[in-house]
């Protein structure tokens, strides 16, 4: 099996590159290497030359606040590029199965928990809308052109190598100050999944999913409060630091997320990394950054 990973320099892409090498040939590219000149033409040439069995799109911008300040860039990275990949596959490599990494942001602030794939889609940020539009492109190319696609709604992935978002922000404030001040109340909940389990989930999808344009939740299926996970991390980092939540909510941040992963489990996925073990591994990597 030949796997093409687009976005191989990013957090998920870099881990997936190493993981998928255990199961066949891997070709890894970054989206930035395809920028400049005609990206559409470069993508067309890429798929014509490689003819991958699987393409996993790990590329894109993954920063909700930036999608408010620069929505056009977010659209280019998360939506336009996906359409161009699908068009290139249709033209040059129609047998390629396309795995698009979407986001739980397509749900917005859910009415009920846990969130099933059939839940209403109501994004609360440009990022969420752009991820949803990319999913719709995948559905379009599947239903109209017969391209095999699947979109994976990633919840809160974490682990060594992630230099952004909650745990990285907590570490930087622990490292640089005696105070760890964070947005929100701390009572908000998220569904965290360790990066090794994300890779396992992607493999389960590649091996068993229908690739009919469907969307699948990628998560642990367990909710934890922001306060709890930050407290666990600070304990592993050491020192007398405690988190101080300022109460101010960031634009685009939902209150609570927890995924229904029945569909993913039906593909044979099992969450293997406990939160404690995942936080210990993450803390160890963070301390090595000093």
Automatic annotation (TrEMBL):
Pathway: Bacterial outer membrane biogenesis; LPS O-antigen biosynthesis. Belongs to the NAD(P)-dependent epimerase/dehydratase family. Transmembrane segments: none annotated. One of its GO terms (molecular function) is dTDP-glucose 4,6-dehydratase activity. It comes from the Bacteria. Pfam families: Epimerase (PF01370). This is NAD-dependent epimerase/dehydratase family protein. Its EC number is 4.2.1.46, 5.1.3.2. Keywords: Isomerase, Lyase. Residues 4-219 form the NAD-dependent epimerase/dehydratase domain.
């Amino acid at each position: 099996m030949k796997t093409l990973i687009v976005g191989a320099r990013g957090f998920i892409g870099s881990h997936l590159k190493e993981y998928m090498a255990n199961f066949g040939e891997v070709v890894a590219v970054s989206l930035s290497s395809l920028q400049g000149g005609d990206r559409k033409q470069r993508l067309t040439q890429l798929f014509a030359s490689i003819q991958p069995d699987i393409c996993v799109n790990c590329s894109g911008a993954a920063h909700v606040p930036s999608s408010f300040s620069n929505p056009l860039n977010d659209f280019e990275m998360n939506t336009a590029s996906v359409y161009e990949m699908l068009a290139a596959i249709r033209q040059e490599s129609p047998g390629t199965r396309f795995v698009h990494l979407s986001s739980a942001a397509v749900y917005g602030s859910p009415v009920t928990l846990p969130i099933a794939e059939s839940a209403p889609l109501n994004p609360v940020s440009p990022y969420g809308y752009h991820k949803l539009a990319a999913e719709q492109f995948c559905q379009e190319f599947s239903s109209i052109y017969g391209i095999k696609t699947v979109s994976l709604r990633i919840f809160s992935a974490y682990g060594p190598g992630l230099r952004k978002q909650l745990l990285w922000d907590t570490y930087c404030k622990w490292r640089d100050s005696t105070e760890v001040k964070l947005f929100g109340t701390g009572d908000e909940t998220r569904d965290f999944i360790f990066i090794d389990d994300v890779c396992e989930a992607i493999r389960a999808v590649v091996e068993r999913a229908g690739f009919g344009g469907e969307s699948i939740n990628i998560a642990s299926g367990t909710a934890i409060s922001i306060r709890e996970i930050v407290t666990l991390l600070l304990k592993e980092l050491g020192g007398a630091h405690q988190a101080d939540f300022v109460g101010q909510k960031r634009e685009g941040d939902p209150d609570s997320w927890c995924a229904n992963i029945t569909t993913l489990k039906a593909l044979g996925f099992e969450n293997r990394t406990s939160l404690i073990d995942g936080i210990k591994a993450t803390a160890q990597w963070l301390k090595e950054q000093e």
